[in-house]
Specification:
Layout (H helix, E strand, L loop, with lengths): L6 E9 L26 E9 L5 E8 L11 E4 L6 H5 L8 H7 L4 E4 L26 H18 L7 E6 L1 H12 L4 E7 L29 H4 L2 E5 L5 H6 L11 H13 L11 E5 L1 H10 L14 E6 L8 H9 L6 E6 L15 H12 L3
Parallel strand pairs: 4-5, 4-6, 6-7, 7-10, 10-11
Antiparallel strand pairs: 1-2, 2-3, 3-5, 8-9
Helix pairs in contact: 3-4
């Protein structure tokens, strides 16, 4: 466990909901920087905390000073295997920021980038040809990053007894579940959203017989094919979302402004994206290796070790998690103070970025109601 981690506050600005972060600021002695408030009354502060030596983890704090409630726990949001934190959870367009929604409901919200993603330290392997090294950033490394972020949040929110609410999307849920199993006393609430768990052997797209399996060694991840990292273009971000929407008119399901902001933020998250044609951003392959093993029957962490109240959310149209994942998780969460499992009707994997009437309202209602429980 980390204690008193080094913290740097990088930028603090209050911004209108559709504005962008601007302007550097220097930090005070405690690592905080006074921000200004914009029309949305939201204050965003950019922080960094050390995880492993020479590994800096970027964390964005989002708060609404006028609505901040001491009764609400601080919340850490963790992205999935490909798109980093801000692009996943804090887009500068209406309907594109789960962080802003939770801040307006009274929470101090934190959006982190695991190592290798966004503004966090990128391992040296990500600057070398991808085939030179094995998959970078497996779950054990991300759990250490989460531990550092939780310590940072707890230091900034001493009223909560060092406990933090955690919400993870897809692979982010797998990482946070593994953290919560190892550090149950640090978690006030746990939300696992479209998350693989296991031990369930079988997956429609990434299990046995897929491109993820070694062609000559059944049950083994094809590390040579994927290497240390993957690159994703703008065009590669949308097919899985498109295929989940049962309508020819995708704009009836999601706001095109949110889609544009999502794609732009994902590309902008990597300073090298413009050096490739077409532009693309890097993401470590370790999350894909972890997910392959979860998809082929391995259990990488034990939910029976978790004690926090746990909410399991699964979208009915999800392509990542399986219907059995919430079922097995519910059975294994034998020590959790409370377990609630909800299927989001007719919702996609990206429901927190879809239109309100396409599942986003139900998602927000479930999350905010759960986080409001003691």
């Amino acid at each position: 466990m980390h204690s008193s981690p080094p913290v740097t506050a990088m930028v603090a600005t209050g911004i209108a909901f559709a504005a962008v972060l601007t302007g550097p600021a220097s930090g005070a002695g405690d690592g905080s920087v006074p921000g200004t408030r914009g029309p949305a009354d939201l204050v965003r502060t950019e922080l960094q905390v050390e995880s492993d030596p020479r590994v800096r983890i970027a964390v964005r704090e989002v708060r609404d000073p006028g609505r901040l409630s001491p009764a609400r726990p601080p919340v850490l949001l963790l992205h999935g295997a490909r798109v980093p934190g801000v692009a996943s959870f804090d887009l500068p367009t209406p309907g594109g920021s789960l962080a802003a929604d939770l801040a307006r409901s009274g929470h101090q919200v934190y959006v982190m980038d695991a190592r290798g993603y966004g503004r966090s330290t990128r391992p040296p392997e990500l600057s070398q040809p991808t085939a030179v090294n094995p998959p970078a950033v497996r779950s054990d490394a991300v759990v250490r990053d989460v531990a550092a972020a939780v310590d940072l949040i707890a230091a900034r929110n001493p009223r909560n007894g060092g406990r933090v609410a955690l919400l993870g999307w897809a692979t982010g849920g797998h990482w946070l579940g593994q953290y919560a199993a190892a550090h149950p006393h640090r978690v006030s609430h746990l939300v696992l959203y479209n998350t693989l768990y296991g031990p369930i052997d079988g997956h429609p797209s990434m299990g046995r017989g897929s491109v993820y399996e070694h062609p000559e060694r059944p049950g083994e991840f094809n590390a040579a094919r994927f290497g240390a990292y993957r690159t994703s273009t703008a065009a590669s971000l949308l097919p899985s979302w498109d295929d989940s929407i049962p309508s020819q008119d995708k704009s009836a399901w999601r706001d095109p402004r949110v889609v544009d902001a999502y794609v732009r933020a994902a590309l902008d998250s990597d300073p090298t994206s413009g050096s490739r044609s077409p532009a693309s951003f890097r993401a470590p392959s370790g999350a894909v290796e972890d997910s392959f093993y979860l998809a082929t029957g391995r259990q990488l962490w034990d939910a029976s070790l978790i004690t926090a109240p746990t909410l399991i959310l699964r979208s009915a149209r999800d392509f990542w998690s399986r219907p059995q994942d919430p079922q097995v998780l519910t059975r294994h969460l034998t020590r959790a103070e409370e377990v609630r499992s909800v299927e989001l009707d007719d919702a996609t994997h990206y429901v927190h970025l879809d239109r309100a009437e396409r599942g986003r309202s139900q998602f927000l209602t479930e999350v905010t109601r759960f986080l409001a429980t003691a």
